[in-house]
């Protein structure tokens, strides 16, 4: 293919020139891209990333621009402790420390997504990662202010659609473009901000298309073929994996010395294939595609105040109208509707001496309806209200942090109504023996009320290949988590970093979907039950400069994670296998390149009932980027160099869907 040859030439050229430039005399300066201290918004009042008592990763805009065009879960899947549900290129949610679905909260600027992505793994998130200015990933129940649905972790997608600052020089923004060979993929993105105040206008748009992607082997796994006694599938493409996405939005803010007030609107429209559904039984109607549409309206504001020891008031509100249709061939199948609104108000004490804090409340109401043959959940209304307080004392060498939250949740449906009152709390302390070392220990008690799906499901669910039955008697699950954190930060002498997180979580009344051994409508029956469960594991990251000269450096980074989950009823399904990632990279003033080797362990022990094992795999990726000038950068990547067979154990599709074959992609970023 001509595009493949072009991409290969560009990839090779960038990589060769990058390593050659390590021996060059001088690199020209590029526009400053990084900030020295990353503030994480999960605490409301903001804390440096390296001073948190939980594991947090932040992807800035520069990193997002150069990531492959993919869904949210797939983009984050290589972070330690994070995997993807990997249902399809158009649908992937994050899996954090072995937990997913209703236990991992996906936010947009700190507000709920109000989509249907947690209902089923074949439902996409309605926010594309390319919209983000930054993405923050918080593992474990570390963000108390967001309530029980954050019991497993949070992914906060932060954009600048509603401007919070004025535009530099009156106009600023960026344009991105990339193409990939394995799926004939193309992606364009544009965001811009205009105005130096008090009025500032912003707009953004993303367009992404891809065809069915090429595969190194047939879509069905060897284990499934052996179990079913069928002939191997020799196809070299993953059928029905194409994506056609577009999203666009705009916002207007009034910004002054008082703070800011702004309004924004966003439209998402995507059509994506759902691999594997056409193989499900004699009555299947052919390839299933999902057409997703969402309109979102948001108001954001921040005011500088002087009230009872607080110096800032934030008030945000949003309304979302979501609708997706599952097409069975040319016929309209099941439809899902979700509309809702949310309000969140915080009083903050930030950067005022030793004490930081936040008190606030949030209100949320959501109407959900499913119509069609696979409407396995009845129409429901969910109302939530929460109040919370969180404080931090930082004396420099040591400190403490704690908080509490009370939630009320009510779920109603025809002939059903149930209330849940939940209390969550956290307490932790840290010690900093030097500017480069940080040690923390935190204890969290989190309560999560069951979802409408877990309570009321009763019907065939093609997304999981099961007939699911809920239980109206479910109570809230209670999790107790203990996490130990250690950071060793880079300094100018050793250029060495190390980060360690050890955790254990014990759940009373853990809500699990377990097989009954029965069959209904040709599908195995699974029922939501409560049991006690335990998760434990760790994430380790370290790096060292192998060589440096001026602004140029060659660096080795390593990351390893491990998680184990088990309950009184047996092992938990789809627990993330351990992964080890090694990256050797060179970075100069213009050039940046690396080679990444990632090994994911086989999942062939401690499996859940009826769960097939998954082979391990090792992938190799090559990446290079070059700053043409302070505004324009080019990048290219060769992914899965060895054409490895990749199956993600965290995916319910892993035995009928294989990862993409060797892929050449290239792109550019233009900042203005």
Describe the protein.
The protein has 672 residues and is mainly β. It has five helices and 34 strands. The protein has helices at 2-21, 61-65, 72-76, 222-228, 452-456; strands spanning 39-40, 47-48, 56-60, 82-84, 94-96, 104-108, 111-112, 134-139, 153-158, 171-180, 185-194, 199-210, 243-256, 259-274, 288-307, 310-328, 331-349, 355-371, 380-394, 398-413, 416-434, 437-448, 458-461, 466-469, 477-488, 496-520, 523-549, 552-567, 570-571, 579-587, 591-600, 617-627, 632-639, 663-671. It has a 22-stranded antiparallel barrel. A five-stranded mixed beta sheet has the order 3-8-9-6-7. The longest helix has 20 residues, at 2-21. The radius of gyration is 24 Å and the shape is globular. Mean pLDDT is 90; it is low at 1-36.
Summarize the SSE layout with pairings.
Layout: H1 2-21, E1 39-40, E2 47-48, E3 56-60, H2 61-65, H3 72-76, E4 82-84, E5 94-96, E6 104-108, E7 111-112, E8 134-139, E9 153-158, E10 171-180, E11 185-194, E12 199-210, H4 222-228, E13 243-256, E14 259-274, E15 288-307, E16 310-328, E17 331-349, E18 355-371, E19 380-394, E20 398-413, E21 416-434, E22 437-448, H5 452-456, E23 458-461, E24 466-469, E25 477-488, E26 496-520, E27 523-549, E28 552-567, E29 570-571, E30 579-587, E31 591-600, E32 617-627, E33 632-639, E34 663-671
Parallel strand pairs: 6-9, 24-27
Antiparallel strand pairs: 1-2, 3-8, 4-5, 6-7, 8-9, 10-11, 10-34, 11-12, 12-13, 13-14, 14-15, 15-16, 16-17, 17-18, 18-19, 19-20, 20-21, 21-22, 22-25, 23-24, 25-26, 26-27, 27-28, 28-29, 28-30, 30-31, 31-32, 32-33, 33-34
């Amino acid at each position: 293919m001509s595009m493949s040859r072009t991409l290969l030439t560009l990839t090779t050229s960038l990589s060769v020139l990058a390593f050659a430039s390590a021996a060059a005399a001088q690199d020209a300066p590029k526009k400053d891209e990084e900030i020295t201290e990353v503030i994480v918004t999960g605490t409301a009042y903001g804390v440096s990333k390296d001073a948190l008592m939980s594991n947090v990763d932040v992807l800035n805009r520069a990193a997002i621009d150069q990531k492959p065009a993919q869904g949210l879960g797939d983009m984050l899947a290589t972070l330690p402790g994070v995997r993807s549900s990997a249902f399809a290129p158009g649908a992937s949610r994050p899996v954090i420390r072995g937990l997913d679905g209703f236990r991992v909260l996906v936010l947009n600027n700190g507000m709920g997504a109000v989509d249907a992505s947690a209902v089923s793994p074949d439902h996409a998130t309605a926010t594309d990662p390319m919209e983000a200015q930054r993405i923050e990933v918080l593992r474990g129940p570390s963000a108390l202010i967001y309530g029980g649905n954050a019991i497993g972790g949070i992914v906060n997608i932060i954009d600048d659609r509603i401007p919070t600052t004025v535009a530099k020089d009156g106009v600023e923004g960026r344009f991105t473009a990339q193409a990939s060979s394995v799926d004939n993929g193309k992606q364009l993105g544009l965001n811009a901000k205009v105005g130096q105040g008090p009025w500032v206008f912003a707009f953004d748009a993303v367009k992404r298309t891809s065809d069915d992607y090429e595969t190194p082997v047939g879509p069905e796994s060897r284990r499934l073929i052996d179990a079913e006694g069928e002939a191997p599938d020799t196809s070299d493409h993953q059928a029905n994996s194409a994506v056609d996405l577009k999203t666009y939005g705009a916002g207007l803010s009034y910004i002054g010395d008082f703070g800011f007030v702004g309004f924004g609107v966003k439209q998402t429209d995507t059509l994506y294939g759902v691999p594997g559904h056409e193989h499900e039984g004699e009555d299947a109607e052919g390839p299933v595609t999902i057409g997703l549409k969402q309109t979102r309206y948001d108001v954001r504001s921040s005011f500088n105040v002087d009230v009872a020891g607080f110096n800032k008031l934030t008030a945000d509100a949003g309304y979302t109208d979501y609708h997706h249709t599952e097409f069975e061939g040319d016929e309209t199948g099941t439809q899902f509707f979700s509309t809702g609104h949310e309000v969140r108000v915080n009083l903050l004490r930030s950067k005022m001496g030793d004490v930081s804090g936040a008190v606030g409340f949030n209100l949320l109401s959501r109407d959900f309806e499913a119509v069609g043959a696979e409407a396995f959940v009845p129409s429901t209304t969910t109302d939530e209200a929460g109040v919370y307080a969180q404080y931090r004392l930082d004396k420099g060498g040591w400190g403490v942090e704690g908080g509490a939250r009370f939630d009320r949740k009510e779920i109603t449906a025809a002939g059903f109504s149930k209330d849940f009152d939940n209390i969550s709390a956290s307490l932790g302390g840290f010690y900093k023996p030097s500017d480069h070392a940080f040690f923390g220990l935190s204890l969290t008690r989190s309560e999560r009320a069951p979802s409408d799906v877990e309570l009321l499901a009763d019907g065939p669910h093609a997304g999981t290949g099961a007939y699911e039955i809920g239980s109206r008697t479910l109570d809230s699950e209670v999790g107790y988590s203990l996490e130990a954190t250690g950071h060793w930060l880079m300094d100018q002498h050793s250029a060495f970093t190390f980060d360690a997180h050890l955790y254990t979580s014990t759940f009373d009344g853990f809500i699990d979907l377990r097989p009954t051994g029965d069959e209904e409508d040709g599908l195995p029956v699974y029922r939501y039950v409560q049991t006690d469960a335990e998760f434990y594991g760790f994430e380790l990251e370290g790096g060292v400069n192998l060589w440096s000269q001026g602004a140029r450096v060659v660096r080795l980074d390593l990351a390893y994670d491990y998680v184990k989950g088990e309950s009184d009823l047996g092992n938990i399904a789809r627990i993330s296998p351990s992964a080890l990632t090694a990256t050797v990279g060179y970075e100069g003033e213009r050039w940046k390149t690396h080679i990444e080797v990632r090994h994911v362990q086989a999942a062939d022990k401690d499996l859940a009932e009826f769960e097939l094992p998954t082979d391990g795999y090792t992938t190799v990726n090559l990446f290079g980027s070059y700053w043409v000038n302070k505004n324009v950068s080019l990048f290219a990547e060769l992914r899965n160099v060895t054409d490895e067979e990749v199956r993600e154990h965290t995916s319910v599709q892993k035995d009928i869907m294989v990862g993409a074959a060797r892929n050449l992609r290239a792109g550019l970023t233009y900042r203005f």
